[in-house]
Amino acid sequence: MELNGRPVSTGELSGLALQGYGHFTTMLVTDLRVRGLRLHTERLSRDCETLFGTDLDIARVRELARRAARARPSPSIVRVTVFDPALDLARPADRSLPQVLVTTRPAPTSEPEPVRLGIRSFSRDSPTVKSTSLFGSIRQRRAAQVDGFDDALFVGIDGRISEGPTWNIGFLDGSGLVWPQAPCLPGVTMELVSRAAQTLGIPVSTRPLAAVAATRVAGAFITNATTGVRPVAALDGVHLPRPGLLGRLAHAYRELAGDPL
After folding, report:
1. Where are the alpha helices (DSSP H) in the chain?
2. Average per-residue pLDDT in the chain?
3. Least enclosed by CB within 10 Å: which of 62, 89, 103, 261?
4. What percent of the chain is predicted at pLDDT more than 70?
5. 243 compared with 253, residue with greater pLDDT
6. Count of CA atoms in the C-beta half-sphere (13 A) of 230
7. pLDDT over 90 (residue 243)
8. What are the beta bridge partners of residue 222?
9. How far apart (Å, rounded) are the C-alpha atoms in residues 219 and 238?
10. Are the beta carbons of 176 and 204 closer than 8 angstroms?
11. How far apart are CA 251 and CA 158, in angstroms?
12. CA triplet 22, 27, 32: central angle to 5 degrees?
């Protein structure tokens, strides 16, 4: 764990821990290459402007992420978090000095098991920003697990499916690959899976999806940089099929070339 390329102190992390004002992106780094690197850096730039009103030095971010990845066996998970250690809770508009925190952890070594999702009525604050404020999302994940599910699937007050705590969800039906048309984080892996689908000739679209309709699809999966394409086994206790097309889609995603970090 390094802040601007040096060991970080507990004092410098206190603002992030107590206030949670910041944003991040998480990358799977394999042999110093990252799928969708440009999408990750564009997200960091966009969210930095949204939260702090300032530009982010992306060349420096890549240097810090590369340094951290080199210190870890490949593959590894590298998270870049942008926050201001000296942010004043009472006067957050007085500062625009975001800093770069890089943390690493080992990447999963096995294929993830299909996930069982429980539907929860919930919408993240500022859903298009990948913010460090995860309280609401983790609370819903915990509630779903207490009820016997693996994770939570969010629906808005209008009943439309949006996303999960740390992932996007996609569906397969007779028309191809369908992403929910609702406010959610535009995930990097979501975009890459769409590209993989197009290489297979699978039409990609977005449309409003109600939870009841989602239980009648030909298959579903969740996506993020850590797990890639993970099948959904059941939705609110309703079993979902696992078509062969889902395996082809997951393979096409894994075959996408990474960009040099």
Report:
1. 10-19, 37-52, 58-70, 135-146, 188-199, 211-214, 244-254
2. 94
3. 89
4. 100
5. 253
6. 25
7. no
8. 169, 230
9. 12
10. yes
11. 34
12. 130
The per-residue pLDDT for 187 is: 96
Backbone angles phi, psi at 100, to 5 degrees: -115, 115
| Type of residue at 71 | A
- Chain position carrying tokens 């601007």: 4
Token readout for 166 is: 């740390």
Token pair for residue 183?
């406010």
Question: What mean pLDDT comes out for the span 1-17?
Answer: 91
Reported as a pLDDT band with limits 50, 70 and 90, residue 73 is: very high
pLDDT (tens digit, 9 = 90+) per residue, 115-172? Answer: 999 999 999 999 999 999 999 999 999 999 999 999 999 999 999 999 999 999 999 9
Q: Rounded to 5 degrees, what angle do the CA atoms 26, 29, 33 make? A: 125
Q: Who's near 99: CB < 8 A, 6+ residues apart?
A: 3, 4, 82, 83, 84, 85
Residue for token pair 């406010």: 183
- DSSP lists the bridge partners of residue 155 as 121, 161
